[in-house]
Amino acid sequence: MLVSAKEMLTKAKAGHYAVGQFNINNLEWAKAILLTAEEMKSPVILGVSEGAGKYMCGYSTIVGMVKGMIENLGITVPVAIHLDHGSYEGAYKCIEAGFSSVMFDGSHYPIEENIAKTKELVEVCRAKGLSLEAEVGSIGGEEDGVIGGGEVADPNECKMIADLGVTMLAAGIGNIHGKYPANWTGLNFEVLAKISEMVGDMPLVLHGGTGIPEDMIKKAISLGVSKINVNTECQLAFAAATRKYIEEGKDLAGKGFDPRKLLAPGVEAIKATVREKINLFGSANKA
Ligand code: 13P
Question: Shortest CA distance to 62 belongs to which of 23, 97, 95?
Answer without folding.
Answer: 97
